[in-house]
Amino acid sequence: MFKIQIRQLEKQFVKQHQYVDVLENISIDIKKGEFVCLLGPSGCGKTTLLRILAGLEKPSLGDISIQHENKQNPLQSMVFQESGVIPWMTVEENVSFGLKMRHMPTDYIHEQTNHYLEKVGLRRFRKLYPKELSGGMKQRVSIARAFANNPEILLMDEPFAALDEQNKFILQEELLSIWQETEKTVLFITHSIDEALLLSDRILLMSAQPGKIIEDLPIQMQRPRSIEQVRASEDMTNTFLNIWEHLHREVKHARSANH
Amino acid sequence: MRKLIKWFKHQQILTISAPIVLLIAWEFFSRMEILDPRFFPPPTLILQTLIDMGAGGELFHHIGVSLLRIFCGFLLGVIPAICIGLFMGMYKWFKTFFSPIIMIFMPIPTLAMLPIILILFGIGEFSKMVTIAISVFFPVAINTAAGVANIDPIYTDVAKNFQASSKDFFLKIALPGSLPVMLEGIQMGQAIALLTIVAAEMIGANSGIGYVIWMNYKAFLLPEMYVGLLLISFFGYFFSLLLRGLERKLLPWK
């Protein structure tokens, strides 16, 4: 039994009175506790796929099922891009948002919120508003908010894309450490190969529009990983080059198709 | 830092110097009879008149009447404006349905509707409040709708993803998210309310600040008329300070 099952998913948009295929024949199985990265060139439909899983969009065809083991928990929660932190709520209110919306008992909300504020190191900043936070801190809020909600699976939409290099490394390692404690199933979108190599158990490579899964690469490096280890490993370098070639071909292919 | 403080002081001095220079010039030209003091009595005389009128007590009655009309009329306009504005911002169909009505009525000056208002509501206090309510309604409703429409769609996604009910969406996302633009509308409405009440009181009333201005003009008591103008200027400034303070309280996250 898989935690997430996607079967022959298709998605079309209407753009200027024409159908555009965004996703084509997507079938994915993800095991419980797996950390899977969806990697593809921009505009390949990976965000659309994630939004469909998040219930923010409907597929044109195909099935999705997410195994709902503990009915107390929500099915999924999303870590949005940087602007997803709500500016009129304090750090604390943002983190407890999902729990409050589901009307959980106050004690539980407190406990979860405090726990994850502690985890991401924002306890001291709990009463601040997002405008007073740096980009990295805002993303920590977003991560804490999703984990605190204790969902069956976590969806992450390029959460670190807007951060500078150093902050990105720090947050990636923090995310891994939280993930390893909770053993949640994660589907993570990125266009950064380095990020995918550091984080994933498996990388799903997507083609340019219409998005298809063209490669399913297991990453067998042992955990906990650090960016130094990933950089030093010969296996990882080969995988990097392999992915790079694929993406390169896809981007070129997409360009020639457009001209 | 010191330079900054110095610059700040410098600015403050500049800000208050313009009105002071104007008042001194006015006083001087009026006393010298370069300006006709019958039409432009010197500011010190106006001030003296204000004190005399205040001592008489009747002035406070007029001020009280005007403020009550503004306050009630303001609430009567702002509350439905916020409700309708929020609805327009949240539901496309409602906006499509309702905006023609706004488009039709907005260009009509509220004072031009005064005869109809008088026919409908009589010549009592209520019709004055209705006049203010109508003039306040449009800027607040339009700004509220724009405020909701301008909320970043990502917050709608966040609310949906974290399973906010429509009540929670309204209270936690739509209302606070539209508040900054809505308050701008209320600020505008406040200014319009003051304009409207004075004009309305000039036309059909026997009390209020507008009435003070108009009656004293007719009786050619110009210092007394200037007192009325002074009061309007004062209250306009006072209200906008009040609203700005409210804004700071309501929007700590801005």
UniProtKB/TrEMBL annotation, chain A:
**Taxonomic superkingdom:** Bacteria
The protein's matches in SUPFAM superfamilies, at most eight in alphabetical order, are given as: P-loop containing nucleoside triphosphate hydrolases
Q: Which PANTHER family match?
A: ALIPHATIC SULFONATES IMPORT ATP-BINDING PROTEIN SSUB (PTHR42788:SF13), TAURINE IMPORT ATP-BINDING PROTEIN-RELATED (PTHR42788)
Q: What are the entry keywords?
A: ATP-binding, Nucleotide-binding, Translocase, Transport
All copies of domain ABC transporter, residue ranges? 4-233
Is ATP-binding given among the entry's keywords? yes
MF terms from GO for this chain are: ATP binding; ATP hydrolysis activity
SMART domains noted in UniProt: AAA (SM00382)
Q: What is this protein called?
A: Sulfonate/nitrate/taurine ABC transporter ATP-binding protein
From TrEMBL, chain B:
Q: Which domain of life is it from?
A: Bacteria
Q: ABC transmembrane type-1 domain location, by residue?
A: 63-243
Q: Name one GO cellular component term.
A: plasma membrane
Q: Which UniProt keywords apply?
A: Cell membrane, Membrane, Transmembrane, Transmembrane helix, Transport
What GO biological process terms does the UniProt entry carry, in alphabetical order? transmembrane transport
Q: What is its main location?
A: membrane
Q: Where are the transmembrane segments?
A: 12-29, 67-89, 101-123, 129-151, 192-214, 226-246
InterPro entries linked to this entry: MetI-like (IPR000515), MetI-like_sf (IPR035906)
Q: Where in the cell is it found?
A: Cell membrane
| Bilayer topology annotation | Multi-pass membrane protein
Would you identify the family this protein belongs to, as annotated?
Answer: Belongs to the binding-protein-dependent transport system permease family.
PANTHER family named among the record's database cross-references: ABC TRANSPORTER PERMEASE PROTEIN MJ0413-RELATED (PTHR30151:SF0), ALKANE SULFONATE ABC TRANSPORTER-RELATED, MEMBRANE SUBUNIT (PTHR30151)
What is this protein identified as? Sulfonate/nitrate/taurine ABC transporter permease
What organism, scientifically named, is this protein from?
A: Gracilibacillus halophilus YIM-C55.5
